[in-house]
Predict the structure.
Amino acid sequence: MKTFLLFLCSMFLLACNPDYLDLKRDKSQTVPTTLDDFDGLLGNSMTMNQSSSHTLGMISGDEYEVHDASVGLVSRDFERAAFLWQPDIFGNAESEDWNGAYRRILYCNIILEGLQKVARNETNKVRYDRIKGECLFQRSLMFFNLAMQFAALPADKQRSIYGIPLRTESDPEQKNARNTVQETYDRIIADLLEAESLLPQEGFRFIELIKLPYRPCLPEFISFLKITIVLLPIP
């Protein structure tokens, strides 16, 4: 009995050791700290290429049509509701376009915060800048896609307060109010222009996945933003 009590006491003391709480159980709990770690996150195709905020935009566009007889074959409820222009698209479900975009933004913020703790030097500066540029471009693109779907139009002055939450930190406890439309597009353009100054001439991972060079793409994106922000007419 005495031996058993000693065993219980030792386990209790071990459990109370604050260092025990800092132990990492597996690799999935490792905080990314190196350029290799950051490249690993950027190489996560499911999050950094497929998770996005584009589905509803494509459905509401004119890239393709779904005839009435085929609408019932659309598997996901929110997509079918969007094709039918129903007033309540999501019902009680979460928006995959919203969650997917902010998931990618979270990855970008984790990397950008991690880069602040890595010394940039002559040896790593090209890779360092490329990683930072990729993150800024990805975040800018996701903010833009979110704004196109969930924010008011830039020229609609009566609804100028309805931008999107601009999450620029990885802290899950951070609470973000909705930013204004002006603040939303200011952030999109700022991230994009900083990305342009950092990314290499050859292209980078995200654009390479769809076989397009980066540099010719950027001026078109900026021009589209300027047209959207300045010239978009309101009926």
